[in-house]
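Example record for the data management plan.
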Amino acid sequence: FFFCHRRKSGSSVITSLVSMARVNLCLALLALLLTCGAAPAVSQGTQAGICEDSECAGQDNGGVCWCDLLCTFYNDCCDTACDVCGSCPLEGDGICQEEECSGPDSSGVCWCDELCTFYNDCCTTDDSSCEVCGNCPSTNCVDNCGNISNDENGFTCWCDELCTQFDDCCEDVCDECGTCYAPPAPPFPPGEKNFDCAVPNSCGGTSVDASGGVCFCDSLCTLFQDCCPDACKECGWCYTPPAPIIPCGPGELKMDVEIIVTDPWPEEVSWEVDQLNPLATEYETLILGNADGGFFCLKPTSPTAPYFVIIQDSFGDAFAGSVTITAGDSEVFSDGMEILTDKTWRIDVSPSLVATFTLEDELPCQQQLDCNLECYGVFFEKWTTDEICDDGQSGNTPSGGINFNCPSYGDDSGVCDIPYEFVIVPEPDVLFPLNEGSGSTVGAIVKPGSGFPSSVVGELENTVWQEDSLFGMSLECIEEDLSVVKIPDLAYGVAAFTISFLFRHNSAVGSAHEYVFSHGEGTPDIFAPDNLNIYLPEESNLAHGIMRFVLKDSDDPAAVYYLDSDGLNTTQFARDVPGHVDMLDDKWHMATIVQNPGVGYNIYVDGRLSGEGLEFGGSPVNPLGDILLCARTDFNAFRHFGGFVSNLHIWKSTLTNKEVYQLYHQMGICDSADQVQTTTSLRTCCQDPENPFLLGDVTFDNAVNILDVVKAVSYILQATYLTACEEFVADYNKDNLINVLDIVSTVNFILGEDEG
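Corresponding structural encoding:
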């Protein structure tokens, strides 16, 4: 009980350092003592203000002064306290003597007893309470279990078993004494969500997450990155990761220049980077620098166009020093310069630079980074507004799927919360099936009222008809035989138009381009007005694997501009954009171009938006001459396409994103015809006949259970999106409807009443 009380005349004996919890405990103990049995009475004297032997442990009889040993500290001794009781004031200096180790020092200004460390009133002169009496303050619980201590800031803390109850433990009490806070209770009852910031009134304070850990719902959590997972949704405290620092822009390669000048006058030295333009007629200065070196960013039209670093000395004496140029971890140049004039030296960095461009691990992200610092194609952002649910299914990065939860992508416009609804694709104005199977001509299906001749016939030169597992027959063009399909001129470009076709290619040997579609008289300049050309870079070309589109309207200048199927425009870098479709994989692909009036044009691969052309091709276009398949309009022998073509569609109108997507699915494109399964929304699901899907397994977890029933019911209630293959297995009865009958059949299968 001693730790609760130290007598102090006229005031409370509990100091502010003792927690109120411990005070209440002391009072409870006091009440218990008073209840269970009173302390023995102290004999009282007969005269007020006079100490008698019986009063030496307390006050005098009159209660006006004290006779005990502490009266000298509190300066309230009776006149006879010294003579009768030995309570005599001593002249002290704040230094503890051995005889004072149970109370204050003789001066009464500090204490020497065990409690001085608790009340923080120990005699500190010469550290005598510690050195003389052994009452030393502790700053932790090491060898101090069960006692009081001080934390690193000098405030009182405890090392006893009660500290967890009163929440005043020293930090190391668990490790040193085994007195540990109990783990938190389960954060939420089963079936109820009352954790994180969803707990009522938690915004602005702390909460407990689903695992029982502490998290925060206040405005500072974004700064310290310790927000509860739903702090943004529930309280509006949203963490936005800092944008990654990218010194160079999309498609640019960072080149570092280090110059060491041993010339006595380094300020005379400067450098610049020049590039010979693609027509080899003039140099373009890309950047200027001084003797401090630095870096520059390159985004060439073609990496085969020569690059030069020019070193200049304004005084005209020989350059003294060294120059090192690096790209990523590759050294492009380190020695040797060509003297141009008495003041200029040139470094040709082209050969090494071209080699560097072909190394994918040295290439920068050519487009941009998402919130996980993954490189992704710009056109992926467009997928979130095209009325088609992606839900993380599309797009790839080196470490897996693209994160469609990143702010870059938005919420896919809510289309992932409702079933897919098919659209009716408008009938094309002209359709060339290209599946006759014999003969030297191909016919077209012309829509009445289209304005085109009722009969349009194309001529075949050096082509071959081949059996095809999807289309029965398809037309093969052979590059070495200079194959070509000539279709009479059709004026599709007087208004906004759409052109789509299928192609398949398994080998494109060479470094040139193979033209699949070519229309116009821009020979040999495909960038002249009134031209539409669609072609494939060959395998030795740095940009192989993509398809390239060039559309120039009647008002466009003859400027170089092309749009690639990975979303990049007018760049010849080796490709590292994740997610773009490889066009040279010997599979059928659908290529589509849709004019965007007043803006430019959109391109699509396999029904999905893949690029947006801007500033060119947005006005009426009037290419003249035959429409050519498998060749360029000048019939250049090195520009023929070697592969298969099928289903050329032409509209004198624009298709929407969803119509292009639906058209692709209606083509029924899989690796083989026996894989093609058509769903209730007229989409195509490719099913391996050797490993068929399990009917009713809507969740695709290789089991049919109640989870599949729940998802199917949600779909019927118009609250869930299903992919094409999920739709296929949800139609358990195969009646081209997904309804309660399919649910009944699925439940019967689960109960063993239907063998499936």
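Summary line stored alongside the record: The CA atoms of residues 498 and 651 lie 5 Å apart.
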